[in-house]
Amino acid sequence: MIVVDDVHKHFGGFRAVDGATLEIRKGSITGLVGPNGAGKTTLFNVVAGVLPPTSGRVVMDGEDITGLPPHALFSKGLLRTFQIAHEFSSMTVRENLMMVPADQSGETLWNAWFGRGRIAQEERALAAKADEVLDFLTISHLADERAGNLSGGQKKLLELGRTMMVDAKIVFLDEVGAGVNRTLLNTIGDAILRLNRERGYTFCMIEHDMDFIGRLCDPVIVMAEGHVLAQGTIDEIKANEQVIEAYLGTGLKNKVAEPAV
Length: 261
Known about the structure:
By secondary structure, the chain is an alpha/beta fold. The protein has helices spanning 40-47, 70-75, 93-98, 109-114, 116-136, 152-164, 182-199, 210-216, 234-239, 241-248, 250-257, and strands at residues 2-11, 14-24, 29-33, 55-60, 63-64, 78-80, 170-174, 202-206, 220-224, 227-232. The strands form two sheets. A six-stranded mixed sheet has the order 6-7-8-3-9-10, sandwiched between helices. It has a four-stranded antiparallel sheet with strand order 2-1-4-5, with helices on one face. The N and C termini lie far apart (43 Å).
């Protein structure tokens, strides 16, 4: 679905992404892991149109999307979330969801004056869809809560809900588990799995919680120093000597080597 072909992103003399090549299969939940500074978030930003690449190509469903801006990729069904959630804090959770779909009739002055009936009809439909999303995510009880009052994990669920308002094809999740308690993290994981299995969403996610990655992701791609170091199942990654040396540490190596008791 997504092919990243020899992508470089340089900031002066610093090579944040240095020849990354990888593929995200349609229907997969692909994990992207690696030490801090490996280039993961920069690569996300290049794929999602936030940053232009220095060189290389990004292809989606056979179409070259290299350098397209985020709003153009949004219309193609490619969305990304951020490590720090971005919400309209003074609006309710339901209103935050209703803001997502583009080209709403109420966005034009003409319709605001002469198309009030159509606007009201659209808003009812959007509110109904927002309530369906909230029910799917098991946070219907927060529909009328101001988004700024949500916990970190609830805000991550809200961001996931935004992707459901436009039926995204592929979603890039940047550290969805950061700062989230284990109970809410399990809820987020359940939602991701259901979206993948029941609605055909493709995901690529940056995450440092290897248990969370292991539960959700196949394959797992490891980046180091701006390029892809290894790819495989979570068990293959944990047993890979290069990965252990670059990222996971000798503690895990020793743990893996211990016999089961």
